[in-house]
């Protein structure tokens, strides 16, 4: 690539970018141009180019400003990369960047235009990528284009901030959009974007508007303070929104209308000024969503609207929790509606309403209020502690006949004799549910214990009906103890339904919580959160997963103990209303029970869930296969059985999850086997999993797999050995490999072999090769059969830590999931144990989540935590279990001058430059003189120095060429002393 320099001061340099683009290219020179722009302000810029080039601000992002006032400051149709530029346009209708037909990548650039204009436009088949950019005042428009916006800020637009039009396919990821005069993101005209991990604040209209047959996916995003409705889907458009937070909408948080269709999962809507969800002349399905504190209604289904709300919660509506208007159809399942100022749920004349398994409590008037002409179906509904009785036959002037199919049973809070109907346990009797439990694979001891409790409850009920005292109180609260993947959650759900069928509890619902749902970081917040969870579980079961984490103090102001104390009191005050099941590892649950003197007496039974046997794990795998339309060949069954017989089943073994992973891996390998066939396989072949489809020796858990490619092992070790310096690091890695080889030999000899623990701390200053070594380590372990894939997922604090309670655990788990089968490299890991400056820092939650994931998936992921030596000690002390999970610390010492010179020479050789002895001496002298600077930056500073030398070489040689010199190959490749001494 031809290197050209643009400068306002350097002799021989081009004065404008246009001059450099128009300069004649050597007839036999390289294709494309790399234009290096030196720092400065370049007014009157305006050019159109169809060529391929790279345009770089040499001084780094923000050092070069290109100002224009034409139709477009930069207009491109070729393959172009822009790096570190500020591009501005001051025309009343001009754009800073206009891209058509070509492919353009803009990195760390800033684009500015007038507020009513388009700052960045991609159209006519363009492929436009914005990475780490900032767009001010003007909008970003993709029209019949494709590409990605990543880590880009858009602020100050008068109209829509981002417009995706005419079938554009764009990914908008990790972007921040603030203060748009119109919508934050407008998706229209059949466009199909993915919008994820974005924050949209203060939009003058919708935060996200999807219309005109567009199809949008919105994930893990936050929409704050929209001046109208936050998320709007209309005009025959379709959208899926998952794991989103919507706060402070001036109107509705979500509005679906005019033929729009929305599927919402895990959306949390806080404090909309009108309603949380409104669906009219459209369709919406909402799963696991919450509407909290709406200014009017929680959910509104209008005329010709169809809405389904499943496993949700509506809390604190200023008027009605869920309202179905005339002509609307609403289905609500397993949802809690509480705290509404008026009715919990209402149905207007000729509305359709279906309520199943819902809890409607503590509302300001009737729990359920339905017009006599509404078509209402209710099943397993609990409506209690409301200010007025339910009304199911309110008569309007028409006097039509009621069409209520099944009236709800209204439970008086003081009626101690109230019993559940069969429908509240899903329509099944206790015997049917026990048969369902018996059909589960394994768990003989668990089944025996549950049946024993069931028989006790049956006899107690028979004694009560016979007028006899029921006998001694039966301890219903239990500990489910055992490793993961053994069915604890599934059994808890069945147990809740069994208790409801027996009439022991009213509803039988199971409310599943963990530490994050019970513990707050604020004084007094924990009692409120724990009480709220307990309230939702009334009439059913409160299932606390990993309950032992409540007894482990994680910070100086940890409130886990407060959650336990609050729980004990609630169990005493409401002993006949809620069954509590605490689950976790056996040893840790003993620690949990000891955390409060009253806890052990209230939870008197412990049910042990043992590891599945190899035969049971085979049966689980077969069941999963049959469910998905597959069969296991005889050889496949034998191989799976042999695999599970050889796997060490310690506390971290995944049990049922491990069986599921074996099946999923086999399906993937079968697909790869068929992909190479010229003829399509038959139905019989498609349904049969062969032994060769299995990856049971490796999979994602491969601590003792055989080396897959000895040549690759030798190649990776050679690259590690060839790295400059790092003698101590190389020795430590060699020791780890020796330990692995020894363990394999012992295992082959039938001796006990400790599992290979490869988690490492990389301690040292930046630029000493930590990331490079981590990548080589991942490749090496994959080649040796220790890791399934060997990919290295790099993460920092911002990738792991969320912005609200519960968000951090989710983000950390997602990053960890991407690293399964490979290496998770956490750079500057110490930042997790250091508060970020706000009162609500979640770095500690990331560490706690990481420790648990490392334990649960110890055979699937290698974690490397990197940072300054002095800081990493604080990181390791942030959690009691952290230090023990890292095998050793590898210290990356700063390079000496000879090492830095060697790095420079290696970079030069790789780029076809020569470093003669005089230049080497000048380089050594420069590094000696600036030793402090290079001790801090090490290899990174040398990389900057090398790039600076290349720029100086380009400037010098181009000046010679402009003076008429015929440059030789030696001149084009040789770096002189003046090039390397800035």
Mean pLDDT: 83
Instruction: Please compute the radius of gyration using only Cα atoms.
Output: 33 Å
The residue fraction in helices comes out at 25-40%
Largest sheet: 17 strands, parallel
Overall, the morphology is globular
What structural class should be given to the helix and strand makeup? alpha/beta
Uncertain regions spanning at least 5 consecutive residues? 397-426, 697-705
Oligomer: single chain
User: How many DSSP-defined strands?
Assistant: 62
Amino-to-carboxy terminus distance: 24 Å
Q: Approximately how much beta-strand content do the residues carry?
A: 25-35%
How many H/I helical runs? 27
Topology:
Blueprint lengths: L1 E5 L10 H6 L10 E5 L2 E3 L4 E3 L3 E5 L6 E5 L3 E5 L2 E5 L1 E5 L5 E6 L2 E5 L2 E3 L5 E6 L3 E5 L2 E3 L2 E5 L2 E5 L2 E3 L6 E4 L3 E5 L2 E3 L6 E3 L6 E3 L2 E3 L6 E3 L4 E5 L2 E3 L6 E3 L4 E5 L2 E3 L6 E4 L3 E5 L2 E3 L6 E4 L2 E5 L2 E3 L6 E3 L4 E5 L2 E3 L6 E3 L4 E5 L2 E3 L6 E3 L4 E5 L2 E3 L6 E4 L3 E5 L2 E3 L6 E4 L14 E3 L18 H9 L5 H22 L12 E4 L6 H14 L8 E4 L1 H4 L6 H13 L3 E4 L15 H14 L5 E6 L1 H8 L5 H4 L2 E4 L5 H14 L3 E2 L1 H13 L9 H20 L7 H5 E2 L20 H13 L4 H22 L11 E4 L6 H14 L8 E4 L1 H4 L6 H13 L3 E4 L16 H14 L5 E6 ...
Parallel strand pairs: 1-2, 2-5, 3-6, 4-7, 5-8, 6-9, 7-10, 8-11, 9-12, 10-13, 11-14, 12-15, 13-16, 14-17, 15-18, 16-19, 17-20, 18-21, 19-22, 20-23, 21-24, 22-25, 23-26, 24-27, 25-28, 26-29, 27-30, 28-31, 29-32, 30-33, 31-34, 32-35, 33-36, 34-37, 35-38, 36-39, 37-40, 38-41, 39-42, 40-43, ...
Helix pairs in contact: 2-3, 2-4, 6-7, 10-11, 10-12, 14-16, 18-19, 22-23, 22-25, 24-25
């Amino acid at each position: 690539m031809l290197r050209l320099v643009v400068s306002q001061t350097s002799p021989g340099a081009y004065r404008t970018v246009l001059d450099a683009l128009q300069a004649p290219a050597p007839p036999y020179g390289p294709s494309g141009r790399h234009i290096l722009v030196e720092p400065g302000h370049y007014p009157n810029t305006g050019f159109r180019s169809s060529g391929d080039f790279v345009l770089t601000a040499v001084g780094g992002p923000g050092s070069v400003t290109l100002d224009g006032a034409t139709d477009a400051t930069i207009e491109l149709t070729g393959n172009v990369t822009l790096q570190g530029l500020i591009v501005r346009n001051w025309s009343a209708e001009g754009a800073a960047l206009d891209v058509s037909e070509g492919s353009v990548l803009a990195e760390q650039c800033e684009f500015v235009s007038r507020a009513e204009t388009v700052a960045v436009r991609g159209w006519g088949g363009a492929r436009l990528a914005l990475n780490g950019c900032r767009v001010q005042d003007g909008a970003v428009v993709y029209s019949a284009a494709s590409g990605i916006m990543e880590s880009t800020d858009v602020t100050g637009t008068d109209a829509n901030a981002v417009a995706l039009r005419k079938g554009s396919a764009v990914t908008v990821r990790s972007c921040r959009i603030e203060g748009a005069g119109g919508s934050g993101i407008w998706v229209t005209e059949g466009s199909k974007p993915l919008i994820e991990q974005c924050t949209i604040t203060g939009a003058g209209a919708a935060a996200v508007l999807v219309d005109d047959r567009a199809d949008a996916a919105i994930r893990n995003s936050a929409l704050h303070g929209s001046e109208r409705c936050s998320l709007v889907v209309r005009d025959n458009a379709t959208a899926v929104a998952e794991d989103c937070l919507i706060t402070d909408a001036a109107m509705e948080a979500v509005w679906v209308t005019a033929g729009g269709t929305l599927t919402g999962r895990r959306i949390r809507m806080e404090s909309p000024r009108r309603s949380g969800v409104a669906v009219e002349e459209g369709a919406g399905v909402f799963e696991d969503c919450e509407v909290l504190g709406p200014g009017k209604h929680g959910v509104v289904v209008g005329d010709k609207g169809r809405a389904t709300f499943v496993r949700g919660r509506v809390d604190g509506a200023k008027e009605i929790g869920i309202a179905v208007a005339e002509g609307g159809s609403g289905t609500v399942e397993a949802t809690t509606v509480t705290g509404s100022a008026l009715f919990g749920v209402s149905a207007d004349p000729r509305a359709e309403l279906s309520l199943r398994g819902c809890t409607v409590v503590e509302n300001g008037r009737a729990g359920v209020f339905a017009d006599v002409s509404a078509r209402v179906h209710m099943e397993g509904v609990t409506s209690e502690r409301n200010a007025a009785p339910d009304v199911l036959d309110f008569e309007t002037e028409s006097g039509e006949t009621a069409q209520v199919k099944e009236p709800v049973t209204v439970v008086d809070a003081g009626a101690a004799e109230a019993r559940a109907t069969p429908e509240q346990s899903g329509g099944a009797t206790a015997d049917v549910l026990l048969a369902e439990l018996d059909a589960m694979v394994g768990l003989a001891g668990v089944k025996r214990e549950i049946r024993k409790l069931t028989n006790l409850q049956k006899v107690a009920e028979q004694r009560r009906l016979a007028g006899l005292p029921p006998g001694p109180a039966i301890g219903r609260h239990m500990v489910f103890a055992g490793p993961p993947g053994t069915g604890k959650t599934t059994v808890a759900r069945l147990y809740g339904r069994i208790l409801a069928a027996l009439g022991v509890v009213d509803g039988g619902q199971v409310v599943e919580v963990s530490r994050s749902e019970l513990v707050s970081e604020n004084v007094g917040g924990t009692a409120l959160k724990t009480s709220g969870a307990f309230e939702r579980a009334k009439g059913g079961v409160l299932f606390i997963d990993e309950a032992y984490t409540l007894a482990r103090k994680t910070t100086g102001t940890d409130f886990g103990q407060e959650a336990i104390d609050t729980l004990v009191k609630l169990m005493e005050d409401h002993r006949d209303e809620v069954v509590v099941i605490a689950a976790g590892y056996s040893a840790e649950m003993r620690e949990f029970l000891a955390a409060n003197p009253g806890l052990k007496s209230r939870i008197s039974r412990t049910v042990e869930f043992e590891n599945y046997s190899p035969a049971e794990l085979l049966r689980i795998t077969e069941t999963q296969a049959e469910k998905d339309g597959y069969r296991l060949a005889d050889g496949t069954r034998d191989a799976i059985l042999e695999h599970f017989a050889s796997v060490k089943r310690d506390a971290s073994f995944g049990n049922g999850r491990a069986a599921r992973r074996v099946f999923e891996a086999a399906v993937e390998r079968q697909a790869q086997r068929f992909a190479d066939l010229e003829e399509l396989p038959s139905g019989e072949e498609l349904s049969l999993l062969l032994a060769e489809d299995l990856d049971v020796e490796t999979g994602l858990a491969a601590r003792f797999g055989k080396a897959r490619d000895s040549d690759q092992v030798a190649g990776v070790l050679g690259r590690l050995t060839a790295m400059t310096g790092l003698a101590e690091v190389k020795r430590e890695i060699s020791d780890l490999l020796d330990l692995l080889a020894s363990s394999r030999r012992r295992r082959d000899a039938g001796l006990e072999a400790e599992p290979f623990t490869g988690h490492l701390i990389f301690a040292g200053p930046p630029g000493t090769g930590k990331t490079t070594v981590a990548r080589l380590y991942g490749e090496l372990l994959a080649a040796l059969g220790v890791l399934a894939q060997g990919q290295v997922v790099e993460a920092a604090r911002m990738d792991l830590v969320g912005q609200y309670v519960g968000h951090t655990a989710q983000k950390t788990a997602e990053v960890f999931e991407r690293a399964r089968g490979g290496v998770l490299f956490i750079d500057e890991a110490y930042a997790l144990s250091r508060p970020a400056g706000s009162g609500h820092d979640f770095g500690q939650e990331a560490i706690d989540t990481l420790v648990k994931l490392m334990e649960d998936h110890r055979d699937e992921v290698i974690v490397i935590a990197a940072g300054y030596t002095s800081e990493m000690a604080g990181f390791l002390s942030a959690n009691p279990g952290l230090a023990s999970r890292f095998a050793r610390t590898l210290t990356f010492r700063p390079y000496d001058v000879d090492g830095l010179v060697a790095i420079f020479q290696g970079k030069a050789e790789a780029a076809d430059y020569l470093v003669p002895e005089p230049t080497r001496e000048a380089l050594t002298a420069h590094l000696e003189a600036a030793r402090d600077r290079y001790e801090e930056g090490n290899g990174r500073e040398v990389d900057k120095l090398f790039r600076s030398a290349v720029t100086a070489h380009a400037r010098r040689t181009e000046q010679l060429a402009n003076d008429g010199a015929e440059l030789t190959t030696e001149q084009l490749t040789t770096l002189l002393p003046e090039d390397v001494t800035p």
